[in-house]
Amino acid sequence: MTKMTEIDLQQLQQAMLSYLQKHWKIFFAEGVFFVILGTLAVIVPHVFTIGITIFLGWLLLLAGIVQLIRAVRFITMPGFSLWFLTGLLQTVVGYFLVMEPAQGSLTLTLLLTVFFAIEGLVKTYLALMMRPLAHWGSMLFSGITALVLAIVVWAGWPSTGLWVLGLLLGINMIFLGWTLVRISLHHKTSGE
Fold this sequence. Notes:
InterPro entries: Acid_resist_chaperone_HdeD, DUF308_memb. By secondary structure, the protein is mainly alpha-helical.
């Protein structure tokens, strides 16, 4: 893997600038959507927490059933036992999340903590890539916020597990939406 040169970085930043200017309306609309959805999640975090858990449960349950059916249909296929076990695991986890959403939300809250930590690192890295561009600090702030949210979840565990998933997801969506709106409005082209 080669080290990114100053010229490569400048070309990447110029390409990003061009893309933001050309598609600012899409980024703006996405930002507004995330702010509205995030605000709803902050207002009723319990509902979003249970809703997220049940939705994910159904996805896993249905995906697991489909994978089990396919595995059984191709029982002579090499790796049958691995395909079958994967489908069985998805089915069991999905069933658990659907039938016990409160307990499932505790598990998902821990997973969300990991997600926020990784997302915070990625956003921070993206902010540093955007550094000379306007409002790069907003992306950095969003990254740091995601990292702080991960710490808050971990510090309050397990009592926060039933409501924090919806609340933190909402806060994260608000910051992401706010960032996208600011970046898009700054890069709005005068010809549109």
